[in-house]
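Input sequence (146 aa), recorded before submission:
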Amino acid sequence: MPRLALRHRRPAASTPATLGAVTLGLAAGAAVGFLLSELFAGTAKRLLGEAAKPAPDQGSVAEIVHDALSVLENDLQLRECHLDVVPVRRFAIEIHGWVPDRPSRLRAQRLVAAAVAPAEVINCVLVRGEDDLAFDLIDDSDALHA
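Predicted structure, token format:
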């Protein structure tokens, strides 16, 4: 029967030249990846359909709040509701307050969104007769007398 002999080869010791080449390759790959991401980042966002950031010359936050408040004050139906506009972050505002019905709530958001576009409008307006019912469910008078 033939005899089979296996020889194991020792792994070559890492030389400084090998380590230098690997380090140089990793650094070059990272640099090329960074440059390509910077070049094609805008193209990728457009292809994915992400919304473009508002232009820096769109106005300050104070101007956006002023425009939103003036639109609400100029509307006869919403003027009596005394809605507030609160800046949340750059190019984003919230509308707060109470309105008599859902169409008024939607009207407030649409008017403000059209006035301050492309800024983001977060509608926090509550509807009387709907949103205030949740507060009436909690009866704290029993807890106070116990």
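Checked by second reader. Helices lie at 16-48, 61-74, 76-79, 102-116, 133-136, 141-145.
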